[in-house]
Design goal:
Length: about 190
Amino acid sequence: MWEEDFDKAFTLIDTISTITHVGIPLNFSNSMLAPDCKIYISTGFAWFYYHVIHKPDEKGKACDLRKLDLQLPWPNSNSAVPNNVHYRMDEAEVCNPRLTSLFPEEWYGRKEVKIYPNPATDRLTIEGIFGETHILFYSVTGQLQKKVVSQGDQSIDISDLHQGVYIIKLTGQKLESEHSFKLIKL
């Protein structure tokens, strides 16, 4: 704001040329500093993402702008940004960089559900799940062999399963759909 030559005060950090599957161009629109010290920027259209500046106190590209970084469970309304009504003006820190989440974990994007290693011997890792999820292991003949209830990503002991091929089904209220995987147990 103190720069005499106003054009010198600006630094181009990035541009965006993303077109949605319905032909709507996304851009950088309304923005707001959030309680986690990041700046959330709407896409200029009611869409499923915010752009995020992770280090707003850094100059230029060092600010770590990530386009379409935060996936929402539904479109943001009229390219709105979160309205944080408590601005912390009576506190020493206006924001808290130690916050890890402003929204429930599942708002940060539907992670792809993955299982690994496959083939597996003693342990199987499942990633991309949250909330209560039922992990069901079926034999190829359809008989339930093992059931695990998980609250999130988990490493599961499968040493009690015999060698062979299994179908793993994941079900839970927080999953967008039922997931099935073929597992080879060595």
